[in-house]
Amino acid sequence: MTTSTVPRIGYLLPTRERIMAGRPETGPLLALAEKAEGLGYDSIWIGDSLLAKPRHDPITLMAAVAARTERVSIGSAVLLPALRNPVVLAQQLATLDRIAEGRLILGVGIAADVPSIHAEFEAAGVPFEKRVGRMLEGLRLCRALWSGEPVDWEGRWPVRQGTLAPTPHTAGGPPIWVGGTVRASRERAGRHFDGWFPTGPEPERWGEQWREVQEIAAAAGRAGAVGAAIYLTLAIDEDARAGDARIDAYLEGYYGAPAALLRKHQSVFAGPPEAAAGWLKRYADEGAEHLMLRFVGDHERMLETVAALRGELGWT
Known about the structure:
Blueprint: E1 8-12, H1 15-20, H2 27-38, E2 43-46, H3 58-68, E3 73-76, H4 86-100, E4 104-108, H5 115-123, H6 131-146, E5 151-153, E6 159-162, E7 176-178, H7 183-192, E8 195-196, H8 203-219, E9 227-236, H9 240-255, H10 259-263, E10 268-271, H11 273-285, E11 290-295, H12 299-313
Parallel strand pairs: 1-2, 1-11, 2-3, 3-4, 4-7, 7-8, 8-9, 9-10, 9-11
Antiparallel strand pairs: 5-6
Helix pairs in contact: 3-4, 4-6, 7-8, 8-11, 11-12
């Protein structure tokens, strides 16, 4: 077990949930972002999908959140870079980081291997089986363009003396965190990125995998260069059984797959506040530096509950 840390706490805006409920208005989402900042949360996160899990465009909405807040970091949980032209993406993210004045965190992933995601990639004109290579090369090209220097690039997207402006507020571009719990994802995090950002597993196993990422980073000459984060789903409820049932219904509606299967890949919690605090602390004890929370149920109530728990845990 690693030394316990005081983690930063993030909040996922319910963009997918609001679309599912037939309430696409953005005003209430921005109000939730402002409320979270007011309660002391450290970051606001927005998910990504085109057709598989329809929701608001994350880059556009992150820009709105950046304009409505002053302190919180703003991140994608997670963006699918393979669906986007990296030259266009580099400009969008550089502008977004300017709006956020350096508060952007770019969470990225390769997407799950399920039929709806295959269809989404096909609709976007992107070969699903090439998604890992496209993501890695595309992000390398983004980073090259973010230097502000003329770029010559031979590859999927040929560039001839291309110069991007503006460059991001953050020198070299925003930190990039990569999702995934499989060995290949941990390898990518350790060798290439600034953070590891999976959706599971449970705390002790997560801690084992986090130490593995650190070993991979050290072997690549990047000791201490990778941060540790985790994406967690919570239903805070005095009745744990009712909370579990709500999570199952939520997961199946959100992803269109059996809850039992989804729970194998995502860390979820249902139960009263004091038990939730203990569960979150287990991740901190294993070294998690950033806990990104997705709530199932009344978001305003759970935002307030976790803010209070944070004070009780001494995480302020």
